[in-house]
Amino acid sequence: MKKVILIIILIILFWGLSAVLKSYNSGLGKSKGGNMKLTSVFEHKGNIPSKYTCDGEDAAPELIISEVPEGTKSLVLIVDDPDAPMGTWVHWLVYNLPVNTTKINGKNLPSGTKEGVTDFGRTGWGGPCPPSGTHRYFFKLYAIGKTLDLPEGLTKSQLENAIKEYIIEKTELMGLYKRAGK
Predict the structure, then answer these.
(1) Which of 93, 71, 91 is nearest to 83 (CA)?
(2) What is the distance of C-alpha 110 from the center of its chain?
(3) Model confidence over 134-157: pLDDT tens digits?
(4) Are strands 46-47 and 167-177 parallel, antiparallel or unpaired?
(5) What is the pLDDT of residues 17-44, one digit of tens each?
(6) C-beta neighbour count of 169 within 10 angstroms
(7) Which end of the chain is less crowded, N or C, counting CB atoms within 10 A of the terminal residue's CB?
(8) Long-range contacts of 110-118 (CB under 8 A, 24+ apart)
(9) Residue-level pLDDT at 96
(10) Is residue 105 classed as helix, strand or coil in its secondary structure?
(11) Using an 8 Å Cβ cutoff, are 159 and 144 in contact?
């Protein structure tokens, strides 16, 4: 009898874990619990074209923003690589994006938008350039209920601390990149 109960419990746990994983994997460029979307020239979990990396033009990919929730006062974008050998590497920090922003790239940010300091030691986009293997690049877009009255040049941790209590919704787009021959 104890074995039957144990098997039933294991089946229930496995079923619950399967449901959680299915829910997580269905996010594909979409937010958890909302409708806000972030898309680009590459698919969620797809390869980032080399044009947007150190092997190409190192230009920021165009990002398309849609379905921003009501009550949003500004948008924040954090792009990082958790697979970097020295720990998570910050590629781009953008904040105070106007709520009506539908497209962004590194060349034409809307007026009033500010950028933080990346792990390249400067503001602005720093494209993927992994030393070896395939790395994951997370483009995290936050809808926040406040326009930040903060200077240009924040670090990732300063930015995350500034927005944590104002986050209305978050969506994520993940791209992959591996350098040829590395």
Answers:
(1) 91
(2) 19
(3) 999 999 999 999 999 999 999 999
(4) parallel
(5) 344 333 333 344 444 558 999 999 999 9
(6) 20
(7) N
(8) 114/148, 114/150, 114/151, 114/152, 114/154, 115/152, 115/153, 116/90, 116/152, 116/153, 116/154, 116/155, 116/156, 116/158, 116/159, 117/93, 117/153, 117/154, 117/155, 118/90, 118/91, 118/92, 118/93
(9) 97
(10) coil
(11) no
